[in-house]
């Protein structure tokens, strides 16, 4: 078994590399472009990015945030996404540990970064990311269940996907303008992972999405910056709620039960 610090450090380094790729995903997927071709290039002078200038975070710092060829500014979002993904990978790995389910959680972490940024940018959760994630996550969790001899966890994952996806579908049917189909599809995927953890974590993740969304929307409404018809991307709140449940769901459930005297 790898030492915990080495495991977390390795996950962080992997996160840096994944974060670099996610920058491409976030830019190209909403535009319907291939993430594999053509290679990355400066949008101003169209010069291809050299390999030495494509090292996560470090290259941006050495170039002082500018293109090597035309000196055009390179957005600070690129190194922030890379560093943020590295931190997210490290935190998730520290929480999950050296477990067979870790690849499934790291995969969810990666696509969550991309989906949150895309939803903030264009108010969409692309099917090109969400739908393929169902079979990928199902395979990863099935492998984990078989390796760990945990068929009940796999059953919980499947039920979680049905329950959370069903709740969001009902909300969409009741008010299509308030809950998009993209949110419904994402809910099933998040339910798959939260159901793996347990019913308590599923409830916490589902509840926190609406709580966080309300905490952000209410001040905007009170300040006159948003109204009932204002469209706010809900995907980031769903994702934040799910990861909060992963990180602290068990403690939150325990605190609630103690408060309720159960």
TrEMBL record:
Domain Prepilin type IV endopeptidase peptidase residues, every copy: 107-218
Organism: Quadrisphaera granulorum
GO BP terms in the entry: methylation; signal peptide processing
Membrane protein topology class: Multi-pass membrane protein
Parts of the chain that traverse the membrane: 6-26, 78-98, 129-147, 153-171, 202-222, 234-257
Keywords from the UniProt entry: Cell inner membrane, Cell membrane, Hydrolase, Membrane, Methyltransferase, Multifunctional enzyme, Protease, Transferase, Transmembrane, Transmembrane helix
Protein name, as recorded: Prepilin leader peptidase/N-methyltransferase
Gene Ontology CC terms: plasma membrane
């Amino acid at each position: 078994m790898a030492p915990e610090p080495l495991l977390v450090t390795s996950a962080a380094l992997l996160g840096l590399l994944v974060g670099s790729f996610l920058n491409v995903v976030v830019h190209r997927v909403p535009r319907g472009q291939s993430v594999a071709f053509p290679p990355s290039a400066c949008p101003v002078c169209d010069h291809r990015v050299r390999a030495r200038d494509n090292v996560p975070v470090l290259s941006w710092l050495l170039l002082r945030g500018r293109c090597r060829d035309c000196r055009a500014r390179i957005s600070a979002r690129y190194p922030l996404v890379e560093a943020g993904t590295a931190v997210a990978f490290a935190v998730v790995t520290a929480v999950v540990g050296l477990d067979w389910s870790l690849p499934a959680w790291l995969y969810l972490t990666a696509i969550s970064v991309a989906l949150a940024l895309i939803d903030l940018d264009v108010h969409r959760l692309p099917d090109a990311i969400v739908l393929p994630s169902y079979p990928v996550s199902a395979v990863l969790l099935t492998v984990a269940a078989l390796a760990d001899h945990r068929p009940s966890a796999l059953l919980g994952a499947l039920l979680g996907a049905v329950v959370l996806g069903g709740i969001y579908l009902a909300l969409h049917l009741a008010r299509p303008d308030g809950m998009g189909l993209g949110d419904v599809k994402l809910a099933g995927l998040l339910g798959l992972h939260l159901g793996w953890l347990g019913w308590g974590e599923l409830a916490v993740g589902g509840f926190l999405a609406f709580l966080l969304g309300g905490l952000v929307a209410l001040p905007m409404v009170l300040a006159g910056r948003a109204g009932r018809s204002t469209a706010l991307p809900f995907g980031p709140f769903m994702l934040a709620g799910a990861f909060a449940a992963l990180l602290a769901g068990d403690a939150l459930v325990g605190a609630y039960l103690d408060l309720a005297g159960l």
